[in-house]
TrEMBL record:
GO CC annotation: membrane
Keywords noted in UniProt: Developmental protein, Membrane, Signal, Transmembrane, Transmembrane helix
A Pfam family of this chain: EMP24_GP25L
Protein name as annotated: GOLD domain-containing protein
Family: Belongs to the EMP24/GP25L family.
């Protein structure tokens, strides 16, 4: 019971803190990508900012594992907070890439990239939803808690499904290992029997045994 409580607390913390912020350096004429696994039908929002570097251009693109472009912008303005948002269709691995472009005759410099991504309930603007639906603050908070509860239930359902898949995989692996072990033992017994008869014939031919 205590382990279940701890699991709920950890999962609740993960759902609430479902915000990722990262800052890295992008070398001139280089490309850097970040990958993340996302569930299906999830709202993804993000903000990014690129430091200034005269003469250099930075593009960004978000793709899924099949190469479909979900969000894209070329020649990102420097030192400006830009945003993107989209909804995923299937469970997939997203790839966010930033690419630096530099003229051949120019000496480049490193640029700082700030990327903040949110997904799930953290990506929703509940204040705007409350204003649009003319909800009271307590109603907005109840709506957020309802979405949070639904997200936790969905996460538990996915965890149970993954556990069942892992159990099926382990059972199939154990069965295959058992059959392979039996096959290997049969091969060894057959080889040992053949060696015994071969050696008996060899020693009889050499008249070492009768």
């Amino acid at each position: 019971m205590r382990s279940l409580f701890y699991g709920v607390v950890v999962l609740l913390f993960i759902v609430i803190a479902d915000v990722q912020s990262i800052m890295f350096e992008l070398q001139p004429s280089a490309k850097k990508c970040i990958k993340e696994e996302i569930q299906a039908q999830v709202l993804i929002t993000g903000e990014y900012q690129v430091s200034e570097a005269p003469g250099q251009r930075v593009d960004y693109v978000v793709k899924d594992s099949k190469g479909h472009i979900l969000s894209q912008k070329e020649d990102i303005p420097h030192d400006r907070n830009l945003k993107f948002s989209f909804v995923t269709e299937n469970y997939d691995t997203l790839e966010i890439c930033f690419t630096s472009h530099l003229p051949a005759h120019q000496r480049g410099m490193k640029q700082d990239i700030l990327l903040i991504t949110k997904h799930g309930i953290e990506a929703k603007n509940y204040e705007a939803l409350g204003e649009a639906a003319k909800l009271k603050p307590i109603e907005v908070e109840l709506k957020r808690l309802e979405d949070l509860s639904e997200s936790i239930v969905q996460d538990f359902s996915r965890m149970r499904q993954r556990e069942e898949e892992m159990r099926d995989t382990n059972e199939q692996t154990n069965s295959r290992v058992l059959y392979f072990s039996i096959f290997s033992m049969c091969c060894l017994l057959g080889l040992a029997t053949w060696q015994i008869f071969y050696l008996r014939r060899f020693f009889r031919a050499k008249k070492l045994i009768e």
